[in-house]
């Protein structure tokens, strides 16, 4: 259980942005890559259609992922070659929507990517696998406000 004090700390550390189109969400993602050096885990939470994959596509574009990012709904986990400046990294996209137990996600090898500074790991529906994510995971929470408006709350310090 979270204490009131912890809850307060989390609120102080979260920033938020409202986007009014998919392009604006992509642009926010492109801007967000400035925070990435390799080694980050981004935990995306939010309802169906709230913009998690759109955000992921923006990241992938800026990190020069050559393949098209699809929703790996049946694959659960998909690694891509990417780059941060001139450093080669792996961009790993996880969609945990269909994960029913931690074993499901362990069985596709997620642990191989949890502690690597040459990996950027992006997890949709990360709330389903919270138990195995490290403390310094960067959280982004997506909320649908109306047809074209999304609110994205994200960790401020990272
Ligand atoms: N401001 C916005 N930001 C992002 N997407 C938007 C926005 N406004 C409208 N949309 C639309 O909302 C949908 C977002 O879909 P997306 O696949 O990114 O969501 P998701 O959170 O990944 O959903 P799922 O949980 O099904 O994987 C797209 O159809 C997109 O065109
Ligand atoms: Mg998605």
Summarize the structure.
With 158 residues, the protein is an alpha/beta fold. It contains four helices and seven strands, in the order H-E-H-E-H-E-E-H-E-E-E.
The hetero compounds bound to this protein are:
adenosine-5'-triphosphate, magnesium ion
Helical content band = 10-25%
Order of helices and strands: HEHEHEEHEEE
Q: Shape from CA axes?
A: globular
Largest sheet: 7 strands, mixed
Number of DSSP helical runs: 4
- What structural class do helix, strand and pairing data support? alpha/beta
Distance between the termini: 24 Å
Structure description:
The chain is of the alpha/beta class and 158 residues long. It has four helices and seven strands, in the order H-E-H-E-H-E-E-H-E-E-E. It has a seven-stranded mixed beta sheet with strand order 1-7-6-2-5-4-3. Helix 2 crosses helix 3 (52-62). The protein is globular, with a radius of gyration of 15 Å. The model has no long low-confidence stretch (mean pLDDT 90). The protein binds adenosine-5'-triphosphate (ATP) and magnesium ion. Adenosine-5'-triphosphate binds next to helix 2, helix 3 and strand 7.
């Amino acid at each position: 259980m979270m204490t009131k004090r912890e809850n307060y700390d989390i609120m102080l550390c979260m920033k938020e942005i409202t986007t009014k189109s998919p392009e604006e969400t992509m642009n926010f993602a492109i801007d967000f890559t400035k925070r990435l050096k390799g080694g980050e885990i981004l935990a995306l939470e939010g309802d169906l259609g709230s913009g998690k994959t759109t955000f992921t596509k923006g990241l992938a574009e800026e990190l020069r992922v050559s393949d098209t990012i699809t929703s790996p709904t049946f694959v659960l986990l998909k690694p891509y070659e990417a780059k941060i400046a001139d450093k080669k990294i792996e961009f790993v996209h996880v969609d945990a929507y269909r994960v029913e137990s931690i074993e499901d996600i362990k069985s596709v090898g997620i642990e191989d990517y949890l502690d690597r500074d040459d990996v950027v790991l992006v997890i949709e529906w990360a709330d389903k696998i919270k138990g195995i994510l490290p403390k310094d995971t960067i959280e982004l929470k997506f909320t649908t406000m109306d047809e074209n408006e999304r609110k994205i709350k994200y960790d401020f310090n990272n």
